[in-house]
Amino acid sequence: MSAVLPGLFVATCNFHPEVLPPNIMPDIAAAEARTPFSLMFEAVAIHLIYEIVREASLRMPVAVGSAVSIVGALVVGDAAVTAGLIAAPMLMVVALTAISSAVVSKLHESVALIRFAMILLGGLTGFFGIFAAGGLLLADICGAGAFGVPFSAPFTPWIGKEQSDALRRDGWRKLARRRQGIKELELG
Amino acid sequence: MTARGGISAFQFFCTVFVCRAIALFTFIITNKESFPPGDRAVLFAPLALVGTAAVIPVLLVLGKREDRTLFALTDRLHPAVSKGAALLYTAGAVWSAGVSLTRFDLFMSTVMFSGAKLWGLILLLAASAVPVALRGCETVARMSLPVLALLAASLVYVGVTVIGEFDPADLELPLRNGVLPLFRNARSAVARTGELAALLVFAPHIRGGVKKGVFLWWLSFGVTGSLLYTLTTGVLGAYGERQMFQLYALTVLSKLGAAERLDALICAIWVLCSLVRLAFHLIVAGMFLEGGFRVHRGAPLYCGLALPVLSVYFVLSRSVTVFARVIGSGINNLIFLLLLIAAPLSVLAAVKIKTHVQAKKGIL
Q1: Predicted interface score ipTM higher than 0.90
Q2: In terms of DSSP bridges, do strands B7-8 and B206-207 run parallel, antiparallel, or are they unpaired?
């Protein structure tokens, strides 16, 4: 969500507005029509500002850092929407992206880069560029592994007996008896 | 991935399925009379039979243990034969990749971005396929499973949302023109499936029963195609017959609650299929060149292979008329006959004769 949401939003509004429900589409179109910039430029600029605010708050002392965040998020964001520089839907997308990027904070830097690439691809080629880049990411995940076990296992390659400890967690007793499965996975 | 390395037969056939799926979605039925709607519902049965029979020469090359490559045989004959075979199969893979790119371009520029020049998107696709191919056959095989899952989910979504519009009155009885046209259509469909020639170099990397998998693959592919085309006929009726891309017309109709039209999103999944297909063809071409010329399968090779693929695309995509003429000329049949039947059988026969002669002379 953090990586692709802004890109998908830009692609949807620029190339595939028919995907949006008919009662939402006019509101978004009206909000975007009031801003002077293209949607892609808006998305890139606002994400750059967000990254600057984030970096600034990281380097500030804790007490001042939160103030910078508040000024950045509330004051600048609200003023930009009121001044008609950016549209409210875009601000909402950025806010959602920022919150979701905090879920796995260790990946923030790499996800931020991917996000910018997705915005550019979404703005230039629509869903198709995003999915082509998504395919590259998928290949990267599928190609990676540790100690002979692919990162994407047990989903791909599909290992039926490992599924019980994939999306949900097995009990410790069951996990203790699971070594056979791992051995088979390693030896193919 | 594992100590033994390689991919399972299931993964291999999933990859080939994804590769064929995009060809199925962008397939254009030019003549309703030659492919009557009634026959489409039962096409899977002759397809499975004809398809399996057509792959027998390839399976014979693989041997009893299903781990022999074509080059294990051609090297026994003469190094020049290996080189010739490598060039032949590489050209086949490059041609197939170029044609599928053109078909995809035709589809996109017809229904998604009417009249637009999409070479930028195709270049992006080719540029993405090279790094994917560089990661090897295991990565592409692993990648194909989530892509297949996405594809299946999108098709189920389309099926569920349009099933209310299904009108059995639009269906026709099968075999109205007899059995022969059905088998003729099955043969044409099989002739478009050159991907299984990849078994000639993939075999040592595949674990499990390839021979059993071939029949099941043809059956599952045929059943999927028959179901989709029956659904299309029942839902679209006479309107569907006027559509160039019938399955796309079906996705346009699908809507569920707030989601009014998700055809762009569904077609974006087809981009993933195209990516897998292109990467697969690049890998196959690279493996054939590696087998024949002992070249290293690296970035220069894949970039070098992407260039002729793009050249084929640029030549064919210049004019729809030229593309239709080339495809209608029966070149696919010729390529299929050459790559999957004539070449493997010739190599097998030549090896048999050479072994027999050597045994007679007392060399073996």
Answers
A1: no
A2: parallel
Q: What phi-psi label fits residue B66: left (phi over 0), alpha (psi between -120 and 50 degrees) or beta?
A: left
Tokens 């499965």 belong to A181
Contacts of A155 in chain B (CB under 8 A): 145-146
A14-62 residue pLDDT tens = 888 888 888 888 888 888 888 888 899 999 998 898 888 888 888 888 7
CB A73 within 8 A of CB A57: no
pTM of the model: 0.90
Chain B residue closest to A142 (CA)?
Answer: B139
Instruction: Show the tokens assigned to A11.
Output: 């692609």
Give the DSSP letter of residue A146.
E
Contact B49, B304 (CB under 8 A): no
User: Three-class SS of residue A42?
Assistant: helix
Residues present in chain A in total: 188
Q: Which of residues 20-79 of B touch A (CB under 8 A)?
A: none
What's at B296, amino acid-wise?
Answer: H
Q: Alpha carbon B94 to chain centroid distance?
A: 13
Interhelix angle B137-162/B263-293, nearest 10 degrees: 150
